[in-house]
Every structure is written in structure tokens, then in C-alpha cells.
Amino acid sequence: MWKRIVSRCLCLCILVAPVAPTYAGGSFEGYDISDGIPSPIPGQIVARPVPQRWDTRCIPVQFSLNTTLDPVPNPLGPAMLSLAEAAPALQQAFDVWNNIPTSYIDMRLTGSVDNPGFAGFDMINEVTFRANLSEDVIALSFPISFIQDVELVDGDDIDGDGDSDVSHQISTCADIDGDGDIEFPAGFYEAGTIVDSDIEFNTVENRLTIDPAEADTEVDSVDLISIAAHEFGHAHGLSHTLINQRSAGDGTSATMFPFFDTGDPNDELGFRTLAEDDIAFSSLLYPEGSASEGPAALGPGEIAWNDVFGVITGELRHGRSHQSIAGGSIFAVDRQTGGMVSSAFSGTIQLSFDPATGGLFVVDDPSFSIIDGTYVLPVPDGHFAVGAEAVDGFPASSASINFTTEVGAAFGQQDFHEEIFYKNILVSPGEVRGGIDLVTQPAINLRNFGALTTSGFIGAPPGRFYAVRIPAEQLIAAVQGQHLSLRAAEFFTAPLGSAGDASVVPVFAEALLTTGVVNSDGTASVDLENPLQRVTGFIGQDNDFAPLFFRYPHQLGELVRQGIQTGHIQNLFLVLQVPTTTPFPGISALPPLIGLSDVSPLFGLSYISDDGGVTFAPRLDLDFMFGLVLGEPPAPPQAAHDR
């Protein structure tokens, strides 16, 4: 069963009331109002998102374990986990990040707190099994940061509890007065500096385990080390990522993916091991070897960031609106291994902050709200393909990432198709490979389906064919007499996430673009022997649209146009075939799934064949989520103006 891993950020400015919490990812984004620039909204000022991170004076970051629930509650039966067992497991999760040789982050469980209530802003970095969370939320991170640059002086009370939180007698963060909370050294701190970070685990709805052998298919049983590793990623400033399939052979998610399949032991335990993306961004935020002294200085066993990583930089722009895109997902794929190496979110934005209420607002003007579409993508030494994907809800929504993705969504920018723009970018350690600019291609979408209802079919036999018909008249009407260019097919695919197969890559026997006819009885005859395009061993995506990019799209479009004109082509069919052999992979041993919609009005263009493709029977109760992507015809030339 999918459960959410929720992360909230609360930002504050000393002597200014904290704002209401928002859901976020990161780099976890705080915001900066230091410049005090008036916004277009009267009485408000400009707020610019900034990365949340710990100041080096607070590293190692000290966390305290709430001791008021011992043993840890178990909603499924007798308590089975003591705090004495949980504490080293939590430190093991911290060490998942601490052991990155190119990142200087260091987080430690150093103390305890006796808090009978819920965690809150008190200058104690609390890890607690007391939480007030909804049923589908396993855990929550709650980092708090400054919203403007501040000069802290001795005696400042940051959390407003009447007790000093700043001392000129220390040079590193410490509990100097022995009262359990952390004091900061006096001095200057940038906006975005984290001052308090709490992590809550939902033990009302979930049994927490620590032994890998205890990871099972019980959907309300969760591996503590895995979920803690995710939350501790947020605790030091990392965002969610869209990577929920590491490669064509590894369906496990990156540790910072926002959803967790509690019915799949392999997916659960996979969160214990960082993906390349997790490592790259922790290292980008805390680059080892970036200082000659302090936590960022090289020590035994540590490796300088720029001896391992380089960066790819550029800008993402929208091909139709010509706007810079805020919150598009840029990704790099290793050319040698085919693995997803890293993904970043594009864009620099600004918001409007109301000092009276602490509220944040989006100004309804993209020229103000979106400054640019730049991105920074860290990668190791190698050759990479670079592409972009919209943050459109599949596999995660813009609201689950950060302010930047939400602003892009607010202006309708997350409507482009996944695409590879560069196929061979060479990056060496320490190199900044700049100018890798991406412009999305305008497209015409032929989608004969409504919104996603569910994924199916779990009972599909080996070799089943799924097909969606694109009538010739729909193609011709779409291009309105202009040139026909067939760019790609897109198939919504999924493993059986709801029952425990999220770690499995959904692989189909083949994917085709072909032709066919509708028979008098309503069935279809589909030409499987002479397809226009065919890919065997088609790699689907996990709860997302998997593209099948066509070779020679312009020539293919002309071939189809001529076939329609002569009457040889009456319909195009988009076809997927379920693997022909069993058992299917995964703990449930069920087939890969496709997206289904029962949203009215139904199109009635979906078909199934279970007889080897001889006859395709219509499914009039469901639409299959297969679409065809056409190149958008060029705009007609504008008439010259008289001078």
C-alpha cells in the first residue's frame, strides 16, 4: 500500500512571528525577505526561496529522542520495539547520510527529551514516536529556518519562551546552560539557516520494525530505518525527488521519493540505501573539501566534492509560451548503465510576503513571479543523456516538492511531455558544463481517456494485448491540414503498487504503433505483423506515462498521411503486450499494469485480446490511458506591416 512521507517546513525570523506551516520538499526551500523590496501587492514585500541548511557552527547536528513512549506502540499487537533498540536504529539511519564521503553533513542522536506532548518549536531537535498525523502519513519532518539574514547577539530568545538561545561564550551550537535546548553562537546567520528540526513517526497507524527479516507485506508495518533515512534527508535540507525507478533493472525508489510501498519488503528496505541522486544532492548542499577548516574541511576517509562531481547547468523554457519554466524536473541518465543519476528542479521564483499575517502569496504575473528557468544538476564523472519531465502529479505532484514547483504549476507550465534533449553530455569532476539549455516542444495530444481511476488488470494472462484506437479522422482533424508529425506514444504503466510490487520495473513484452480496422461486430483486427514502430521488452514507468519515441517522426507522419489519403490506413492502434511467460516478477507475482479511466463520457476506443492478437474485443466500460503525441504544426507566417 502506498503511504505518504510528509515533510513540512516552518520558517521564521527572529522577533517576527512564525508563519503557518506549509508542505514542502527541497533543496527544502525556506524564503528570504532580507532586502525588504516592496511587492506588487500593497503592504507586502518580496520573498525569495532559499535552500534550507544547517550552519557549519551547528554541525554535528544534535538530536534528542523523546523517551515518554517506551516501548514504542504497536497498533497491530503487543509492543515489540523498545527505545533501547530504536535509538541505535535511528543512529544507523543518520549514518546513511553521515557516511557519504563527499558530504560533510553529520547528524547524531546525542540526548533525550521528556515531552508528553507533540514536538514543537523549542530549539530541541526532537525525534519522537508521538505524532498527530493522518492515516496514510508514516512520518513527518518539521524544519524551522530564518526568513531573513540575522545578526544574533548574546541573550536573544529565538523561540520566544523567555530563555536565551544565543551565547557569545561558544563557537559551536551547544546546550551551554544545561536546560536541554540548543544555544547558538552569537554572530551572523543567513536566511534559510535551520534552527530547529523535529521528526515525528506515526505509531497510531503503523508498526515500526528494525530487523530486515521483519519487513513484510503487512501494509501497516514499516521499516523504521528506511523511513527514518528519508526523514533525516529532509532534516538536513533535502527535497523530494521524482525518481521512483532507479534504472531499467531496478524499480526501487530513491530514498527521497515521497511515497513508500509498505506492502513490498524490497521497496521498504531499498530506502535504506541511498540512490546516486540522494548522494549527489547531499554533497551539493554540504560539499566536502569546500573549506580549509571546520566540518567542510577534508578529514580521514573523506573525498572532496569536486574530485567526484561536476555540474550541468542551463535553463528550461516552455516551447509554446516561451516562458522560463519554474519547477520542471531535469534529469540525467548514465549513458553506460542506463541508470537515473540525478534530477533537479528548474527555476528561480519570487513570492509576496505579508508582514502582518506571515502569509505567502503568488503574484498573478509570471513576469514577476518567475525570474528564470535555470537549473543545477550534479553528476559524477561520465557521459549523460539529459532530459526534462513535467511535475504533473505522475509520479508526484508539484505540491509535494517545493515553492518553485507550485508556482510553475500555478501558471500552467507543467503541461509538457517528457523528453530527452541531449544524448551525450560529457562531464568531468570539478567541471561546470554550462549552456545546456532545454526548450520543450509544443505538441498536440490525442488522449482518448479521462482522469486516472485505477491501474489494472491484476488478472491479465500472459501475452494479453491492450490496444487503443486512434481513428484516421481524429488525426486529420488534429493537424487541420498541416504537416503530420508523429513524435511519440505514451502509455500509463505501473507495477502493482497497491499490493506490494513497487520495487518491480513494469516491463512489457512489446509496445507497438500499428494499423487496423474495426469489424462489423465491433471487434478490431490489428496488424501485429507489420507495425509502423515496434519495441520489444518495453520499459514502463512506475505510475507515470512511459514514452515510446518514434524514429523519424516527420517521415512517419507523411507515411501515415498518405495511407489515410489512399484509404489504406483507417485507424492507428497503440498496443502493449503483457509478458508472455510466468511467473511475473515481484512479491505478488502479478502482471504489470496500465492506467484505466472510467470517467464519463467514455471514448469506447480501448480493446483487449487474449487469443494471441487474432481478435481485439472492445472494453466499453473503461478507457485505457494510451495517448499519441503529434508535433505541433508551425504557426503561419505573420503578414508584413506597412512601414
Written account of the structure:
The longest helix has 16 residues, at 83-98. This protein has 8 helices and 42 strands. Residues 1-26 and 637-643 have low confidence and may be disordered. The protein has 3 domains: 2-38 and 45-279, no CATH class; 308-441, Immunoglobulins (Immunoglobulin-like, Sandwich); 445-631. The strands form 10 sheets. Strands 1, 2, 5, 6, 7, 8, 13 and 16 form an 8-stranded mixed beta sheet that branches. Strands 29, 30, 32, 36, 38, 41 and 42 form a 7-stranded antiparallel beta sheet that branches. Strands 31, 33, 34, 35, 37, 39 and 40 form a 7-stranded antiparallel beta sheet that branches. The chain has 643 residues and is mainly beta. α1 packs across α2. Helices cover 12% and strands 34% of the residues. It is globular, with a radius of gyration of 27 Å.
